[in-house]
Amino acid sequence: MHTKVYDELLNSKRRLSLMLFLFLNIVTALFVSVRATGHAPLTAWLPSLFIAIFSAGLLAKMLIHPEEKIERLNSVALFTGILWAWHIFSRYHYQFYATDNYLLVALVCVFFISAIALADHLLAFCLHALPTAATVLILDDGRNTLLMLFTITLPVVGFTLHHLMLRRLDIFTRRLLSQLSAEKESFSDLSMLDPLTGLYNRRGLNNRLQNSLETHSGNHFVLLLDIDNFKAYNDNYGHTMGDQALIRVSAAIRDAVRSRDIVTRYGGEEFLVLLTNVNEAIAMQLAERIRQFVVNLEIPHRFNDKVSTHVTLSAGIAPLEGDDFNTALTHADQALYLAKNQGRNMLLSYQDLMHSTQPQAAAPLNVLTRGK
After folding, report:
1. Contact, 270 vs 225, CB < 8 A?
2. Would you tell me which of 55, 306, 335, 367 could form a disulfide with 348, CB atoms 3.0–4.6 Å apart?
3. CB atoms within 10 A of CB 225
4. By percentage, how much of the chain surpasses pLDDT 70?
5. What is the mean pLDDT of residues 113-121?
């Protein structure tokens, strides 16, 4: 993403360079076309007129279609360079004095256009300047070879070094953007994980939910689990021990289910597991497996003595019908609520409750304030 934006920025910069290049060509060509002369015929001014017309037409097209991607900078630079060489050759034969100065001024003028507009584009700079440089050297006929070569070589060497510096800067920028993109993805992943347990948090669940439902066909179940009497555990053992218990319980839940199931720390001591592509019998077995794994941890909890002397879980499970996750969550929460009321350390299925004649209490969906 960052690299794409950077490439778009470079294309925009390339476009602006071409527009500036065309503008300078128009201004220079019009100036030499209207400059008074009593010696040169109209044919000597045709190259500069062609340059002005061609540059103005292409510039107008770019202004009319600003979204068009620019790929022709090099070819435009070469074409206008040939036209300028033609212009210098045509005008040279009508110079009756200071012909050497004319060649030098003409060379500097063309190099000036290239230097201003094409400083960041070495190939385009060379393509634009090369026809003029070759023409000037031929017309000079060896009279000022060293001066002409110096005038040509100095800017070429300077812009070559400048181009190499830009290339290094471009490589560094792309490497930096790649690192930023990787760090962004890393931070995005971290923002979806609970820092204590390493499980998905609610944001991570929401991110994985739709993809998981589209990837895995079949039946899915929402399993909601809550550590029994965890407030008493924290109050009596301290929050540090409470955090250690959460870490061990979350690891047990993760180990008890399959790799394709989504395990989430849904609240303080509440966990949610999305069991994917599974029938009801297997879902109940996995849920019971989780409950038993937590019991087998044998984390001492003497303030849980009405249920067990160890940390235990209560759980409610409900089928996910269609893509209605919120309804399945509500049903699982109602089953969990009844499991808490009926003694804790047990698993209740919402479907079984629906077929049962036992009265059911309404359960508010508030995982942070439910009685533990």
Report:
1. yes
2. 335
3. 26
4. 86
5. 85
Contact 81, 134 (CB under 8 A): no
For residue 296, pLDDT over 80 is answered with yes
pLDDT at 351 > cutoff 50? yes
Q: Is the pLDDT of residue 369 over 50?
A: no
- Check whether 276 has a pLDDT greater than 70: yes
| pLDDT score for 104 | 85
pLDDT of residue 98 exceeding 70, the answer is no
Q: Range with the lowest mean pLDDT among 142-156, 296-310, 317-331? A: 142-156
Give the DSSP letter of residue 193.
Answer: B
CB-based burial label for 71 (10 Å; 0-12, 13-18, 19+): exposed
Of the candidates 225, 282, 275, which has an alpha carbon nearest to the alpha carbon of residue 249?
225
pLDDT one-digit tens code per residue, 37-60 = 555 666 677 888 899 999 999 999
Instruction: Give the strand pairing for 313-320 and 270-275.
Output: unpaired
Cβ contact 295:224 at 8 Å: no
Dist CA 255 CA 77 (whole Å): 66
Q: How far is CA 225 from CA 27, 169, 222, 278, 363, in A?
A: 77, 54, 10, 18, 15
**How far is Cα 368 from Cα 334, in angstroms, rounded to an integer?**
14
Q: What is the DSSP string of 242-308?
A: HHHHHHHHHHHHHHHS-TTSEEEE-SSSEEEEEE-S--HHHHHHHHHHHHHHHHHT--B-GGGTTT-
What is the CB neighbour count within 10 angstroms for residue 134? Answer: 13
The sign of the CA dihedral 4, 9, 15, 21 is: negative
Helix or strand (DSSP H, E) at 170: helix 145-191
Cα–Cα nearest to 328, from 357, 349, 358, 356: 349
- How many angstroms separate the CA atoms of 361 and 30, rounded? 90
137 vs 148: CA distance, rounded Å: 7
Please, what sign has the CA dihedral across residues 112, 114, 117, 118?
negative
Residue located via tokens 């792309």: 174
Q: What would the DSSP string read from start to end of 10-45?
A: HHHHHHHHHHHHHHHHHHHHHHHHHS--SS--GGGG
Instruction: Give me the chain's average pLDDT, please.
Output: 83
